[in-house]
Design a protein that fits this description.
Blueprint: H1 2-16, H2 21-37, H3 40-56, E1 60-63, H4 70-74, E2 104-108, H5 112-123, E3 128-136, H6 139-149, H7 154-162, H8 181-184, H9 190-202, E4 206-218, E5 229-231, E6 237-239, H10 243-248, E7 253-259, H11 260-275, H12 283-288, H13 295-302, H14 315-324, H15 329-338, H16 341-345, H17 348-356, H18 369-372, H19 383-393, H20 398-409, H21 415-432, H22 436-450, H23 456-475, H24 477-486, H25 494-503, E8 507-509, E9 521-525, E10 528-532, H26 535-546, H27 558-562
Parallel strand pairs: 2-7, 8-10
Antiparallel strand pairs: 1-2, 3-4, 4-7, 5-6, 9-10
Helix pairs in contact: 6-7, 6-9, 11-23, 11-24, 13-23, 14-15, 15-23, 19-20, 20-21, 20-22, 21-22, 23-24, 24-25
Length: 563
């Protein structure tokens, strides 16, 4: 704990200079909870992993509720300032909650394995394992495996399986009725009927293990002292227990997740460093100097010209950016929170937009809500606002307020929910003199929102990536679009990104023996940037074209595709 305290104080001085009582009290409180819960090693481990990523020049970003922690911010595990954004530590680590906290980190997808290899080497292969996930039998796989056991030929199996849709409302749990009704009537003979009966009995049963997208556990003693392990086909050691089981035995998972948006930014940053080696010692320096305010970037966002930009390129998100005239990182946070099922289905998004434009009067169910919801025009937009309402209006402790938020988000109608509801209504009357009927109405609004709400901490982390992507597209469109095309896998088919590059006035060319690299790349010829297709794209396009998955139709040549 002394090492963690020292690192946190060093970070506090770096970020704030003078340490005031508010910072001291918050820091001491967080450190006491972390120590009491036994999570000191978790923070020190994450600080070391993040430091190594910077040393290697690997772009990373925080995600989720960990950005609510001042300690995490001072250790530079997370990037948003929790004091500036009024984030609650209890949203991340609740003293009243037994489940462990999540410290999730997004990483450049191309270089994620480098960081995972570092974790294995640094903490020892006997102490590290990726978390397993359990894949279960579904309709098609259950029918396929059962048919093999019943002696059906490969041709017969393929014919049967191809008659089933790939999606089924029954999911992976065992249904009360047979999931093969459409086949039962077509094949009434006893052989097929027995097959369908046996296949139905397999649905929902574990089939095999696979690797969690980013979950890693580190143990103080050899991992086999806690959980059985195996060597995955990828070559890494994984647990034979899934996430819930690993958590039950006391191992705390950390998530190192690869995302394409950071890979795009990393490629742009490398190009900027190559152009200015004296100014940037590493690609990360080029990202860190991107300003938080920029008029040209603001104009791009307001116009919704964000195709290729992380999290804000879908038609719905681009429409939202236009509706609220998003021109800053704070506006991006709002857009990310607005375009969610809760605000969309409950009419909150439309109300927010109207009030934001001045087309509707800002109203509150009770004057006590005016301060809490002032920044969002009287609309509940963030999960943290649910905590503030429960804490400030009803006098619930922040720990109880987070339990309330958690119960709501899991749609838990149980005894705990009813107890918290009565406590909220009574507390609202006593603390804020709110009548019971209005307090119940506030409760219903909170309950309707909490299940789909967005944590402000998460919105802040993603808004930073989205802003940097928009800034890169604004000021270096050639490098940005080349990176988007090279790391294709976004919201749209690749021709959409090619068309966006043309709209930006970029010159696209087929592979060239003197200029092309493995990926899409930029060459400056006669002082003009030209985007050349890479050899890897040629191979990928050839493969995908055979399956008609690029354009929905075949094309005869690369020239056809580029034009």
């Amino acid at each position: 704990i002394q090492a963690l305290h020292q690192k946190a104080m060093t970070g506090a001085i770096k970020h704030y200079g003078l340490i005031n009582p508010q910072i001291t009290d918050r820091l001491n409180y967080e450190l006491s909870v972390i120590e009491k819960k036994g999570y000191t090693p978790l923070f020190l481990i994450m600080e070391e992993i993040v430091s190594q990523s910077r040393l290697l020049g690997i772009p990373i970003s925080s995600r989720g509720s960990a950005a609510s922690s001042l300690v995490a911010y001072f250790l530079e595990i997370t990037s948003p300032d929790p004091l500036k954004l009024d984030l609650f530590f209890e949203r991340f680590l609740n003293p009243a909650r037994e489940s462990p906290p999540d410290i999730d980190t997004d990483i450049c997808s191309r270089r994620r394995d480098e960081l995972i290899d570092f974790v294995y080497q640094r903490f020892g292969s006997e102490h590290v394992a990726m978390v397993a996930t359990i894949n279960r039998f579904r309709r098609r796989s259950a029918l396929r495996e059962s048919a093999k056991a019943h002696g059906f030929s490969p041709e017969e199996i393929k014919s049967l399986v191809d008659q089933l849709p790939r999606r089924w409302r029954g999911g992976s749990s065992r249904p009360k009725e047979t999931p093969y009704d459409e086949l039962v009537t077509r094949y009434p003979d006893a052989r097929h009927q027995n097959l369908f009966r046996d296949a139905a009995s397999l649905i929902g049963i574990p089939r095999h293990l696979s690797i969690h997208p980013g979950g890693i556990v580190i143990s103080p003693q050899p991992m086999t002292d806690f959980v059985p392990v195996l060597l995955a086909s990828k070559g890494v050691v994984i647990t034979q227990f899934d996430l819930d089981s690993v958590s039950h035995i006391g191992l705390v998972k950390i998530d190192l997740l690869g995302i394409r948006g950071l890979t795009v930014l990393g490629d742009v940053a490398e190009e900027l460093q190559n152009r200015n080696p004296d100014e940037y010692r590493s690609p990360l320096d080029a990202l860190d100097v991107i300003p938080d305010k920029d008029p040209a970037t603001a104009e791009l966002l307001k116009a919704g010209r964000t195709i290729g930009c992380f999290q804000v390129e879908s038609p719905g998100m681009r429409a939202t950016l236009k509706e609220i005239q998003a021109g800053s990182m704070d506006d991006l946070m709002i857009a990310l929170a607005l375009y969610r099922p809760g605000p969309l289905t409950g009419g909150l998004k439309d109300a927010f937009v109207r009030r934001h434009r001045g087309e509707e009067e800002i109203t509150h169910l009770h004057p006590a809500l005016s301060e809490i919801l002032a920044d969002t025009y009287g609309v509940i937009l963030y999960q943290e606002q649910v905590l503030r309402i429960a804490h400030q209006l009803a006098g619930l402790s922040l720990a109880d307020a987070d339990l309330l938020r958690r119960a709501m988000s899991h749609f838990d109608p149980g005894e705990q929910m009813q107890t918290l509801k009565l406590k909220f209504i009574a507390g609202a009357g006593e603390q804020s003199q709110i009548p019971a009927d209005i307090a119940e109405h506030v409760w219903e609004l909170m309950a309707a929102f909490a299940g789909y709400g967005f944590p402000k901490a998460h919105a802040a982390s993603y808004a930073q990536i989205a802003w940097r992507a928009a800034w890169s597209k604004t000021h270096y469109p050639e490098y940005f679009m080349a990176s988007v095309l090279a790391n294709w896998g976004g919201y749209y088919r690749q021709p959409v990104y090619l068309n966006e590059a043309r709209r930006l006035g970029l010159n696209l060319q087929a592979p060239h023996i003197n200029h092309s690299q493995h990926q899409f790349s930029v060459s400056i010829i006669d002082q003009a940037p030209i985007l050349f297709m890479g050899l890897d794209q040629v191979n990928e396009l050839t493969r995908r074209t055979q399956k008609r998955t690029i354009t929905g139709r075949p094309f005869n040549s690369l020239g056809d595709f580029l034009t």
